[in-house]
Amino acid sequence: MAELAVTRRPRNVDWKRAAALLYGDWGTSKAYVVGIAFALAGYASFWFVLAVSVLTAIVGINYIWVCKYFPEGGGVYSAARAHSRHLALIGGFLLVANYLVTAALSCFEAFVYFGFTFEDAKRWAILTIFIIGVINFFGPRHSGSLAIGLAFATVTVIALLTLASLPHLPAAVAALESPRRPPWEWWVGFTGVILALSGVESIANMTGVMMLDPDARPEKPRVVVTARKAIVPVMIEVCVITTVLGLAMHAIPNMGLRDHEGDMLKHLGRTFVDQPVAQATGWDWWARGQPFAWVVSVVIGGLLLSATNTAVVAMVSVLYLMARDKELPEPFAMLNRFGVPWILVLIAILGPILVLDVQSGEKALHGLAALYAIGVVGAIAVNLGSCALNFRLPMLWYERAIMLVTFVVVAAIELTIAVTKPGATLFALIVLGLGFLARAAHKGFTVPAVLREGRLARLLAPELVVRQQAQEAIGARQVYERQLGPDRPVRAIMVAARGVTPTLRFAVDQARRYGAHLFVLFAREQFTTIPVTYREEDDREAQAVFEAVRSVAGDVEVTTIYAVTDDLAWTILDNAAIAGVDMLILGHSRRGAFTRLIRGDLLNQIGQHLPEEIRLVVVG
User: Fold this and answer.
1) Do both 24 and 136 map to the same domain?
2) CB-based burial label for 603 (10 Å; 0-12, 13-18, 19+)
């Protein structure tokens, strides 16, 4: 019997969708960076914003090269693993620490922009994180389409706000204060607004699902064109707009340091758009309602909620990759019926809620910002250092040189944060400690005693072992007979299996009756942003399906196909077309009404796109 293993995930993320997903994470930084910068340095904060924007541009260029040399996924865990598994774990856990705070801070900031008080924003953020986590139990898809819509709306509103700010730049320059602090204090202040770097790491994790460059092949993937098109426009928007708005806020006189720490963009919209429009038109209702400020609130708040969801999914992806790599307890990788690692989703829900819950409402933004940078800066430092010092990568000399210099600067920032913010250091150490504790528990329970016991049994009583194995085989065959059910006259050439069900027997019987070649497709749904190698021989459910088919196939020619996908309908249609089938058999959908609402109806999706020459048979 021929066997075919298909383990590549579909590369269906083009540069526009990748840019939208990146913007949903990276682009949100301006929502709080400018306000936090003003809270730290008042009317001299522009210099901080300018320095951070320059560094952000340099780091963005570095990540184009990271994507270039890691087309199958260049996140910190993958890059550092080339040097040391422990270094990879440190980078991965630092990234988890970043996502914990990202989810908490983004959700909290969203409700601050919506106009809630700090205490109410904290309560609503905790509830919203829980709801987002529950939705992720169903493995929601097509988030890229939603991200594109939110990114377009945000870019439009921010562009209008930036244009309205331009006439006020001369006044902002006049109010700008020059640096008067000692260099060390300015360096520490600069590290306090380094939050603008957050989000850039996400693009490296997408390379495994990005569309290949026009001249690339699956055997030799290359995504540098796609990555560059995705990174450059987002990088320019983040750096230029953050700099302009960071300068424009200096034109507003007599602002207290923390008056608008959490909603500076909303205040800029109120000052530079709503007030001038009300004065020019005489519309009192415009002055009272401040519609543009509320548009900014809704759009920025929506993007921040999207960033919360992105952080939750990314956290699950990083931890799932570690669990699949045998670095965390294997139960962490257990998938529910929707293809989602449910234990990790629980961690991704409870972690940000706990981080947010321990913060005081009035000081939550400042406290979360203090915890924020140590994770993302540490992950970026580990990633860039691992790539620059990996001399097996065919990097150009100037790429390696620039990356080494960037690594030194980012590492110095990380050390400064660790020294000056003991709370952030403690938080990072707790995350690292819990991660390595889970790994130690997992590695510690892997004892080869069971293997030795099996060898002893085979040595002392080989006949008994053989007889027991035969009985187990007979028992397994009987279980398959019960599960496969009675014969049913259904013609089939390809059957997409979700488990050992009577549908498989239908396909085998009809293939025998008509002398057809039977393709058995098992598609493992996996909703993670980081591509993970899921091996067929390790997938017990897939092995059960294939073994069940072989147990009843007899003289039927069977080809087994194993696929890992985040788009089940696309995978079934693609394999049916490649195999050249004239009939596709599916079992009846086991999804409930709410699940179909969240993820869509699989049968409907396949029916809409199935070629006319392929007949669809639904059994159930």
Assistant:
1) yes
2) middle
Does a structural domain hold residue 461?
no
Residue 96: domain span: 3-443
Tokens in use for 21?
A: 């997903």
> Could you tell me if 491 and 438 lie in one domain?
no
Asked if residue 232 is part of any domain, the answer here is yes
Q: Model confidence at 2, in pLDDT bands (50, 70, 90)? A: very low
Same domain, 114 and 26: yes
Nearest to 352 by CA among 309, 390, 402, 323: 309
Instruction: Supply angle C-alpha 22, 26, 32, rounded to 5.
Output: 150
- Number of structural domains (the chain) is 2
Distance CA 144, CA 127 (A): 24
Rounded CA gap, 589 and 447, in Å?
41
Q: Considering only residues 552 and 372, tell me which one the structure prediction assigns the higher pLDDT.
A: 552
Q: What is the DSSP letter of 363?
A: T
Per-residue pLDDT of 156-196, as tens digits, reads 899 999 999 999 999 999 988 887 778 888 888 888 788 77
The closest alpha carbon to 382, from 54, 85, 30, 69, belongs to: 85
Beta bridge partners of 335: 341
Residue 474 lies in a domain: no
CATH number at residue 539: 3.40.50.620
Q: Provide the phi-psi class of 14: left if phi over 0, else alpha when psi is between -120 and 50, else beta.
A: beta
Looking up residue 286, the CATH number of its domain turns out to be 1.20.1740.10
Average pLDDT over residues 299-322: 85
Q: What are 564's strand-pairing partners?
A: 524
| Closest-CA residue to 368 (of 452, 309, 427, 286) | 427
Instruction: Kindly report the average pLDDT of the chain as a whole number.
Output: 80
pLDDT (mean) for 78-91: 86
Residues 344 and 492 occupy one common structural domain: no
Look at residues 376, 423, 421 and name the one whose alpha carbon lies nearest to residue 29. Answer: 376
The pLDDT value recorded for residue 614 is: 78
pLDDT score at 357: 87
Asked whether residue 613 falls in the same domain as residue 535, the answer is yes
Q: Are 546 and 520 in contact (CB under 8 A)?
A: yes
pLDDT digits over 445-470, tens only? 443 433 344 554 555 455 555 666 66
In this structure, the chain runs to a length of 620
The model's pTM: 0.72
